[in-house]
Amino acid sequence: MEEPEAAGAAAPPPGLRSLLPPREFLRSRKGQLLLAESVLSFIIFICYIASLAASFMMAPLLEFLLALLLFFAYASKLNEKFKGLYWPLMDFLRCVTAAIIYFAISIAAVSKYTDGASKAAGVFGFIATIVYAIDFYITFNDLVTFLKQGSSDSPEGRKSEDENSDSDSD
User: Most CB atoms closer than 10 Å: which of 3, 12, 37, 162?
Assistant: First the structure.
């Protein structure tokens, strides 16, 4: 009777543990950036709820949800399962728009409102702008590498087809 208990103790417990992302993803640069974006967006959302600038709370909420969605999509490797979506481009556009929006609403929150929560949201917004800018810079480099690989393959294929054609249109 002791053997089944020992075998059961070695298996990971089911439940919430299965929802946690793998450690190798959390240690990766992408995992850390997405986690930082999610945490910062949530903090900014809470600050805007508590401030006089509550009209700005929708942008951090949407960015929090999108960062969380991509965090779990990359952690569960949905980007490898759904090849129809080009994940780096989607992530790049998300990061660029988030950096621009956070920069704009942070300037408005710091300059227009005088309460402490608005100022804190503005400061965290500037930090989030930097994190999103780092993320879109890294993602942009991945996009450029991908596009260079795609464009270098195409002309070679066309040249070989043109050289092998027997048309007399020259």
Answer: 37
User: Tell me, what DSSP letter sits at residue 165?
Assistant: -
Q: Residues 133, 100: contact at Cβ < 8 Å?
A: no
Query: Distance between CA 128 and CA 45 in Å, rounded?
Result: 12
* The pair of three-digit structure tokens given for residue 20, joined into one six-digit string: 């946690």
Residues 12-60 have pLDDT tens digits of 566 666 667 777 877 888 889 999 999 999 999 999 999 988 889 999 9
Q: Which positions ≥6 away from 133 have C-beta within 8 Å?
A: 95, 99
Give this prediction's pTM: 0.74
Taking 3-state DSSP, the helix, strand and coil percentages for the chain, each rounded to the nearest 5, stand at: 80, 0, 20
Token pair, residue 127, equals 């930090």
Q: How many CB atoms lie within 10 A of CB 136?
A: 22
Distance CA 107, CA 126 (A): 8
